[in-house]
Amino acid sequence: MPQGERETTETNTPNGDDNRDALRRVGLIPAPELPERIASRIVDELPELLENHTDDRYRWQVDCVTDPLIGADDVTSDIVAQAEKLKHDNDWDYAVCITDLPLFRTGRLTLAEASESRGVAVLSQPAFGASPLRRRLREAILHLVNEMHHGSANDDRQRQQRHLDRRAEARIQSGIRNRSARDLMGWRLSERLVPIRRVTLDTDEQDIDVRFVVKARLRGHVKLLVGMVRANRPWTILPTFRRIVAVAFATGAYGLIFPTLWQLSAAYEPYRFSLLMVAAITAMVVWLIIAHGLWEPQRYTGSPRLTHFYNLTTVLTLLVGVGCSYAILFLLFLIAVVVFVPAPLLEATIGEPIDWLNFPALAWLATSVATVAGALGASLESDETVRNATYGYRQQLRHRKVREREQAAREADSEP
Q1: How far apart are CA 249 and CA 169, in angstroms?
Q2: Are 150 and 206 part of one and the same domain?
Q3: Rounded alpha-carbon distances, angstroms, from residue 78 to 70, 126, 202
Q4: What is the rounded CA–CA span in Å between residue 184 and residue 169?
Q5: Domain identity same for 288 and 381
Q6: Is residue 220 part of a domain?
Q7: CA separation for the pair 287, 284 (Å, rounded)
Q8: What does the pLDDT read at residue 39?
Q9: CA-derived radius of gyration, the chain
Q10: Crossing angle of helices 217-232/304-340, nearest 10°?
Q11: Domain limits at 56?
């Protein structure tokens, strides 16, 4: 069936809905930064997809409102309450929150959950990993709206499955891989490695009807960490390391004029180069954490598990940033060594014949030594710049924004 062709059957009728209104409004509430950017890329295509694949008896309108609280609290009741407030304030029928914080429910890593009675759903963006997110989140949002609109009971899902089977060709044309009325999204390689389980809840303190959790705990946690590192966008901290690179290169370039480095580069075996590289990168990461106070204390989260994830994410983010800086330094030193170190002089200094491998070996050694010295340059960076690479610090900033907004609201209410 063509994508634009519509079908109105009993399988497309929401429970208890008498079609009083021809418009259904959905609100996307992303957290700031990465969730906000992803939501802005899919918000325009969702109305047509909802009309074609959720309920074609309605016109659909999708709004996007960024809210800092969605990225500042991992407690379901607080997120759902804030989303429900925004839903009523904006006269939405359904609200879907996209947070960049990990969600753990009953000890299980949770990707998404939805409440049919409240018309509110929550998505945890980092739980989707670092794989391409736009299509995955688009399918997940479509499915959550379907769950809230048509119901999560077994009969509701069976009815929707029959509808999806009839519209299979149209979904393919829309680029939607999900063929199941019970799956959060279509299964790709990432979902096959880390399976997702759908859980329906009869009773829950937050009136949650359906929840999607990770079945493989260890692999799910690894995927979560990778997703949190991506949400940190480690490539954006590279420009903040320019002083570190400048100090390190200046120090290494000065050291190259001494024959000791030349002789050591010829005497070292590959494992020594590797150990020195690991030690240099580790020393830089540890110094950055200590110098800028990046280690997250448990009192900021109140949860040992979240504290561990925040700190691991910070370490991995810095490892990626420092590793990229190391690679840049190596390229700079390789160019400098090839251009400015004459082969006869290098051979005379080390007292043995050389080949082309001696030049990258010298650059490798200079890079490691310079990286250790570059820790001095890390002290030149502002705490604000470096701390933006940490989850916990951004969360504190969002809490501050929430408090400032609440204070401004109280002051406005107190004015005569």
Answers
A1: 58
A2: yes
A3: 9, 19, 21
A4: 19
A5: yes
A6: no
A7: 5
A8: 94
A9: 27
A10: 60
A11: 10-215
β partners of residue 255: none
Instruction: Tell whether 202 and 304 lie within a shared domain.
Output: no
Both 101 and 153 in one domain: the answer is yes
The 3-class SS string of the chain reads CCCCCCCCCHHHCCCCCCCCCCEEEEEEEECCCHHHHHHHHHCCCHHHHHHHHCCCCCEEEEEECCCHHHHCCCCHHHHHHHHHHHHHHCCCCEEEEEECCCEEECCEEEEEEEECCCCEEEEEHHHHCCCCHHHHHHHHHHHHHHHHHHCCCHHHHHHHHHHHHHCHHHHHHCCCCCCCCCCCCCCCHHHHHCCEEEEECCCCCCCCCEEEEECCHHHHHHHHHHHHHHHHCHHHHCHHHHHHHHHHHHHHHHHCCCHHHHHHHHHCCHHHHHHHHHHHHHHHHHHHHHHCCCCCCHHHCCCHHHHHHHHHHHHHHHHHHHHHHHHHHHHHHHHHHHHHCCHHHHHHHHCCCCCCCHHHHHHHHHHHHHHHHCHHHHCCCCHHHHHCCCHHHHHHHHHHHHHHHHHHHHHHHHCC
Q: Residue 307 is which amino acid?
A: T
How many whole angstroms separate alpha carbon 64 and alpha carbon 50? Answer: 15
Tell me the average pLDDT across 24-52.
Answer: 92
Rounded Cα distance, 314 and 305, in Å: 14
Residues 176, 242 share a domain: no
Looking at the predicted structure, is the pLDDT value of residue 139 above 70? yes
Answer yes or no: do 210 and 243 share one domain: no
The contacts of residue 277 (CB under 8 Å, 6+ apart) are 326, 364, 367, 368
pLDDT at 364 over 80: yes
CATH assignment at residue 102 = 3.40.390
Give the amino acid at 98. Answer: I
Number of domains in the chain: 2
What's the CA gap between 405 and 410, in Å, rounded?
A: 9
Q: Could you tell me the two tokens for 344?
A: 């006869």
Q: pTM of the entire structure?
A: 0.81
Nearest alpha-carbon partner for 378 in 222, 244, 246:
244
Nearest-angstrom CA–CA distance, 250 and 269: 26
Q: Are residues 259 and 320 in the same domain?
A: yes
Q: What number of CA atoms fall less than 13 Å from residue 167's CA on the CB side?
A: 33
pLDDT tens for residues 306-339? 888 888 988 998 898 889 889 999 999 999 998 8
253-262 burial, b for 16+ CB within 10 Å, e for fewer? eeebeeeebb
